[in-house]
Each structure stands twice: as structure tokens, then as C-alpha cells.
């Protein structure tokens, strides 16, 4: 039975060339005819293969050219859209920003004309004429006044009642800060550094508006009541790194009152860092170098005023009294 074995690395053209060479060798009488036939067939084979190979290359080159042309047109179109005409050509390498200063001045004057300085001063005075600590009668009266003012301007105003955790000082018995001095034979003497409230300062009108003693009391909201006594240790901003620096210096804050500047960390975290290291108290103060400009009378008669924006009993929930769905 005849059998044909096919090698994948030999093409039909190779087989035909080999067969033709064998026939030429049998029929030829000399070497010249064999050499001529072999050369002729191989040349025809190469010519045929070359004619088929140039088509994919030409197609790929045409496709690349078309894509390059399309990309170039898109870039030119984007530049034409984004480019804006300029009155004067920009110097090479310099981006010129054109501003209409006359228009800006006109807008500034129009805005300034809408403000009434006397009215602003009047509003500030009636808003600050009495202390209005959150949750007090004065605060409720201020809310009603604000609602009336906005309604008079045409706004629709709604007020809501909230149940929150608030903290108030003992206005009649404010906090004090004292330091013990050793006077030798006379024994220890306590010298008062702070009586727990500030002194009204500024123009006489401002002083008159602060005659209510409640506006002068200093206290740290939500801190524990009590009396603490211990040596004084300074701890910069009261960060974890600051306390570690003290530890590296061999300074122990256990049983001490730590003096800490405001800044770099919220107050509650400063106190927490001191508490977990055994401190019995923390004194927070504003560094004049950070908060007060030269020539100001704010220090030492003023204290830092902190504000809160949520109910500290439920810090992760809002305080709006909206109906809520109970999930079971």
C-alpha cells in the first residue's frame, strides 16, 4: 500500500523543486543542464514567495499612516479649541495671565457698597450684650431674636430642640491656680497665679459689655472636679512623642501636674496622654509666641475659647431629632 509522509518543515514548492531536479538529472547528458534547471527552478520559487510577502507589510504601513494622520488631526483640533486669542503675543516660555483690573475694582466696590458697617456693629452689639452659654435662658432668647431677624429678611426659619450633654462651671467659685514657694523660716507659702477668670480689657464699651461675671470665668469643659497637687512638669504640646522625650530624659510625670501648650493635638488627647502616664492634672495654655502679635494686650488677661460641634455623649451620632427606624 502506498504511503506518504508529510514533513511540516517542507513545503509543496520544495517537493516540486526536488522532483524536477531528479528528472533533469536523469534526462540530462551533462552537468550544465542540471545546474541550469536547478538555478531556474529555485529562482522561480523565490520570485513567487517574494510576490506574496509584500502585501501584509504594505497593509500594515498604510494602517500606521492612517492612524498617525488621525491622531495629528485630533491634537490640532484640541489645540485650536483651547487656544484663546491674546491682545499681545506671549514671550517664549512665559505664561501670561490676563486680568481685567478695572473690572475687578468695579466688582470690589459693588460688593463693598452692599455692606453697612453701622448695621454690622449694631448686630454684633445686641448679639454679645449678655453671655449666651448653650442651654441657658439667654441662649434661647438669642435664638428667638436671630429667627426674627432672618424672617424679617424673607427667610423661612425653623428651630429644633436637642437633648445633649452639657457641662457648666461653678460661676461663684471658679478654678484657681496656685504655686507653693519655700520662704525658708516662714515655711511654705502659696502664691495665687490665677483666680479663674479674666479681666475685661479694650475700649470702655467693650469693658461695659463684659460686666457680667459669667463671661469671665475660665474652665475646661467635661473635665473632672477636684483639687490636684503635685510638682510641675513641662511637656511641650503633650503629644506621644513629647512624653517619650521626657521618658528618655529620665523625667517621670507620675503624680505631677503637666503644663502643656495648645496646638498640634486636640485637648482631649493631650489630657489622655498625661492621664495614662499617671499625671494628676493638666494645665493647658496658649503660647503668646503662637497666638498673640507684638503689642497686644491679650496676654495675660485673656484665655483660649474652645468650641464644640456635637454631643460629646454620642460623638459618632448626629443630634438631629429625626424619626429613626428601629432595626431588629
UniProtKB/TrEMBL annotation:
Keywords: Membrane, Transmembrane, Transmembrane helix
GO molecular function: carboxypeptidase activity
InterPro entries linked to this entry: PA_dom_sf, PA_domain, Peptidase_M28B
Pfam families in UniProt: PA (PF02225)
All residue ranges annotated as the PA domain in the record: 229-295
Segments passing through the bilayer: 54-82
UniProt-recorded name of the protein: PA domain-containing protein
Organism: Nippostrongylus brasiliensis
Amino acid at each position: 500500500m502506498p504511503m506518504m509522509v508529510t514533513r511540516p518543515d517542507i513545503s509543496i514548492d520544495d517537493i516540486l523543486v526536488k522532483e524536477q531536479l531528479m528528472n533533469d538529472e536523469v534526462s540530462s547528458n551533462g552537468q550544465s543542464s542540471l545546474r541550469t534547471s536547478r538555478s531556474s527552478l529555485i529562482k522561480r520559487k523565490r520570485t513567487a514567495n517574494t510576490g506574496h510577502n509584500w502585501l501584509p507589510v504594505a497593509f500594515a504601513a498604510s494602517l500606521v499612516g492612517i492612524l498617525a494622520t488621525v491622531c495629528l488631526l485630533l491634537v490640532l483640533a484640541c489645540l485650536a479649541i483651547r487656544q484663546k486669542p491674546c491682545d499681545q503675543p506671549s514671550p517664549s516660555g512665559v505664561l501670561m495671565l490676563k486680568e481685567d483690573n478695572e473690572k475687578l475694582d468695579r466688582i470690589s466696590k459693588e460688593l463693598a457698597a452692599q455692606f453697612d458697617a453701622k448695621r454690622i456693629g449694631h448686630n454684633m452689639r445686641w448679639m454679645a450684650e449678655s453671655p449666651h452659654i448653650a442651654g441657658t435662658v439667654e441662649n434661647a432668647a438669642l435664638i428667638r431674636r436671630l429667627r426674627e431677624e432672618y424672617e424679617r429678611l424673607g427667610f423661612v426659619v425653623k428651630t429644633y430642640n436637642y437633648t445633649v450633654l452639657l457641662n457648666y462651671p461653678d460661676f461663684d467659685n471658679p478654678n484657681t491656680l496656685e504655686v507653693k514657694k519655700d520662704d525658708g523660716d516662714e515655711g511654705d507659702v502659696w502664691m495665687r497665679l490665677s483666680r479663674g477668670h479674666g479681666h475685661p480689657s479694650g475700649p470702655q464699651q467693650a469693658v461695659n459689655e463684659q460686666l457680667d461675671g459669667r463671661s469671665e470665668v475660665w474652665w475646661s469643659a467635661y473635665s473632672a472636679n477636684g483639687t490636684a497637687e503635685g510638682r510641675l512638669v513641662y511637656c511641650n504640646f503633650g503629644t506621644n512623642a513629647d512624653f517619650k522625650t521626657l521618658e528618655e530624659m529620665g523625667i517621670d510625670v507620675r503624680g505631677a501636674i503637666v503644663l502643656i501648650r495648645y496646638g498640634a493635638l486636640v485637648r482631649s488627647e493631650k489630657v489622655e496622654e498625661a492621664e495614662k502616664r499617671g499625671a494628676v492634672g493638666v494645665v493647658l495654655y496658649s503660647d503668646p509666641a503662637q497666638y498673640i502679635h507684638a503689642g497686644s494686650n491679650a496676654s495675660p488677661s485673656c484665655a483660649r475659647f474652645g468650641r464644640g460641634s456635637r454631643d460629646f455623649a454620642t460623638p459618632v451620632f448626629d443630634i438631629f431629632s429625626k424619626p429613626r427606624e428601629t432595626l431588629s
